[in-house]
Amino acid sequence: MYVGIDVGTSVVKAAAFDGTGRELAVAARPVGLALHGGFAEQDMEEVYGSVVAVLDELTSRRAEPVELAGLTGQGDGVWLVDREGRPVRPAVSWMDGRAHELLDQWLADGTVETVFRRTGSTMFPGCPGPLLAWLDSHEPQSLDAAATALYCKDTVFRRLTGAPAATDVSDASMPFLDPRTRTYDNGVVELLGLTHRRGLLAPVHDRLATAPARGEGLPPGTRLSNGPYDLPACALGAGVTAAGDGLLIVGTCLAALVATTDLDLSGEPAGLYISTDRPGHWLRAMPAMVGTAALDWVLSTTGVPHEEVDGLLDATPPGAHGVRVLPYFAPSGERAPFVAPGLRAELTGISLESTRADLVRGVCEGIGYAARHCLEAAGLTGSLAVCGGGTRSPAWMRLLADVLGRPLRVVEGEVGARGAVLAAAERYGVALETSAWTQPTAVVEPDAGRAAYYAKGYQEHLEKLAGARGMMPG
Questions:
Q1: Which distant-in-sequence residues (6+ apart) come within 8 Å of 335 by Cβ?
Q2: Going by C-beta distance under 8 Å and a sequence separation of 6 or more, which residues neighbour residue 97?
């Protein structure tokens, strides 16, 4: 039995697989996220306790021995620990917005662009650069008490194994890692005013760290590997490794990833290049703020349960009787494929004749256009896999295939956990048939007529978006 652990922002999961990649069992446990005044924090002890709990549940339900385990989790944020790996304060989540004013300043003075030109990373408020700078100014005692600023999966790995504090090239990619040398760019550290905190940056294990488990959650001696973090782990779990192939994660936020061997630091600063285990191979990532949260807002506002979404999507035609939605509902604006903290959603074409079905279809079409924008910016030229909670809606997958104008390889189940196992197998030299592990659940083909309609609608979306960005203050 092979075990994948995925430490998400709201749910911690552990999944068991057999040698062919068949999912045997999943254990899940929610974790809290404290939101207050733009801050977003998590209790590290709760997170770690949830990891142990789901592993205990999984291994108690399955009698097979654990051959090896792989660990992945949410990226970005700041998880400060002392020399023993214990938290010195709550973890600051990637969703945190406390550093937005600092980021606005860096956007205005060119710092964000300079960092992108050096590392391929476009900073946002919840990434380590602005968060560490904010803490240095407003909460220096926490940094003084810390030995290392880790990422989520790294804190869990250290507790499960007792291994020294470290991270991998995927998590280190934002914003300090030079993607060419695969080491920290001290010029960027200096630019962000953090040279005196340089010692807090976790040492980078270039390739994934491995160590035996100590016995909490996993049997003592279980071979465990740390990383990559959830976005590249999903790419591995979906079989996205060839240059030009892409993955769209349809979750609370959209994440578009395209495998590439071309490092292009020109153009509009947006997204990031995620370094992978293979030098010279990256994932061009456009992790947007728009996603299923926009649909959730419409459903809660109109009182429509999720179970009715498919029926409503089928009840109204493409174009939603004129209802158009720019789906940028996040309070922090957008971060990919462009950075616009002040951007907000727009709903147009609504009249007394508009129905709930029109609103639902309009927002789903808008999310699809945003996804197409991200994928084009990321350089998609090959096949496209899709995973995430949105894949549970067949009608939305058909709509998405039409809006994107290409077939979708739908990959269901615990894709991140699956990718973590494949990464662990590579590290430990365990031969697994990757093609069987990454087989799509279904392939959804676009309808030619609807795809042509949406190609025109996409151009109209870009024009409306340009107008909205032009009206933003500043």
A1: 122, 124, 270, 271, 287, 288, 289
A2: 38, 39, 40, 125, 126, 331, 332
Residue 181's CB: how many other CB atoms inside 10 A?
A: 9
Mean predicted lDDT score pLDDT of the chain? 95
CA 79, 33, 8, 305: dihedral to nearest 10 degrees? -160
For 307-328, how does the pLDDT look when each residue is reduced to its tens digit (9 = 90+)? 999 999 999 999 999 999 999 9
CA–CA gap between residue 369 and residue 411 (Å, rounded)? 21
CA separation, residue 368 to residues 199, 290, 374 (Å):
42, 10, 10
Helix (H) / strand (E) containing 255: strand 254-260
Read off the pLDDT of residues 218-256 as tens digits, 9 standing for 90 and up.
999 999 999 999 999 999 999 999 999 999 999 888 999
**In this structure, which amino acid lies at residue 347?**
L
- Angle 147-80-69 (CA atoms, 0-180°, nearest 5)? 100
The tokens describing 202, both together, are 């976790």
- Here the tokens at position 50 are 């949830």
DSSP string, 289-355: S-SHHHHHHHHHHHT--GGGHHHHHHTS-TTGGG-EEE----TT-B-SSS-BTT---EEES--TT--
